[in-house]
Fold:
Amino acid sequence: MEENVTNYMGIVIELGTRYGINFIFAILILIIGFWVSARVKRVVLNACSSSPKIDNTLGVFFSSLARYVIIIFTILAVLDRFGVETASLIAILGAASLAIGLALQGTLSNVASGVMLLIFRPFKVGEFVDVGGLEGTVKMLGLFFTEMATSDNIKIIVPNSKIWGSAIKNYSANKTRRIDLLIGISYGDDIDHAITELNKVLETDSRILKDPSSTIFVNELGESSVNLGIRVWVEGSNYSAVRWNLIKNIKQNFDKNDLNFPYPQHDIHIISQPE
Structure:
């Protein structure tokens, strides 16, 4: 009887010693793993924040991703300490991740596109862009979608995958923009006189840049008008205001100087038939 009790006590002590040590090591692994994950997250976030090329949203994403990867490996190390077969567990997690990835294919595509937009920055918040035929001012750029507002203040939510897969026009990327106008005058009007009056209109607007210089030229001989081309450079923020003002001033100047804007016309010849 005493011998059996001694054997049981020995088994209990052996198991307690074995699992007790494993439990202590598991606690240490968890403590070290969570400390390292928090440390790595802070280091990655600081590194991303110090780089002007990396957006804050992207920094938070990368730092959180690094932290969770370390936590996953920490948990696997703890399970391995208790004799759990981690290889099969990793295979199960891989299969589950694949299934989730297929189910969330569109969402993950938006996330991947959002990361690319945040890295390469084809546009920034506050800039006026055209993406996939949609024009507006960028209000917010996230991992899943981009929020824009049209000129008449309509809110547009665009999935990042659509933006990344489309041509992007950024009207605010450069400081200056060129205004192109096509002004038609009558064939009976003097071209040099019209060009002189157009130059006077351009000189009255101080928002038009001197460098690059403005250009006025005969663009084409149309069906009912001589079309004069005008090219002027302005600050990007003044583009619309200057363009509208030029059209108004050119019309008023032409009215004062007997220069005509011709209408499309057709000559009709009536041939009388012999009786």
Summary: The mean pLDDT is 82. The chain has three domains: 2-103, 123-170, 176-256.
